[in-house]
Amino acid sequence: MRKKLSIDRRLMQSALVLLLLVFAQGIALAVTFPIPSLELNVTTATEPEEVAVVLEIIALLTVISLAPALLILMTPFTRLVVVFHFLRQAIGTQSSPPNQVVIGLALFMTFFIIKPVALEVYDQSLNPYLERKISYEVAFETAQKPIRKFLLLNTREKDIALFVKEADMKKPETREDVSLLVLIPAYVISELKTAFIIGFVLYIPFLVIDMVVASVLLAMGMMMLPPVMISLPFKLMLFVLVDGWHLICGSLIKSFGV
Prior knowledge:
Blueprint: H1 2-32, H2 48-65, H3 67-73, H4 77-91, H5 99-130, H6 136-153, H7 157-166, H8 180-219, H9 227-241, H10 244-255
């Protein structure tokens, strides 16, 4: 029994020594491992180009932070996502297609519709600026022209007049003189009105199906049976037979006139 206890003690001591050696080796490795340090220095700029680079970085970070708002407010995304939402509500499928599919489809259709405008901005403004052929001010002014043309093409004049009046600005002589500060909110409410009109038109055929099914069920005395349960298959069948997604997406693309 004593021999067994002595052997156990020796094993415990050996294990303890081994753990200490491993721990000491780990400490040694941790000490010798180089840890990088980060330093932020504020120094005085010696050349104007250094200040310009810093300002460009700040402007770029600002644009990136505002990119979601710009995508929603200055592109066809607003009209597309609102119309798809009304379509889903009109059919009666509350969660099909899911939100990820609806937003993804609206996003890719936005890229497809806005592609000519984006290419024009890249060719006339961004690419020459990156190649140092034009200054930042010239690039900004040049980039506004195709964007303003697209916004004016899809904005109602009375909406522009509303924001010009509320901003207490001088009435612009031509449509090209309208400021983006006025044009962007006018474009948004114009898009919302157009989307609501399209949604109303989409609701009509599905509403007719709901009324017919409800009248038939009432005539048959099935008042306890929800009409939506019976009308949903007919609405889906109608939408598939007329190739609804093809018609709606094609009409939406043509509605922007790009």
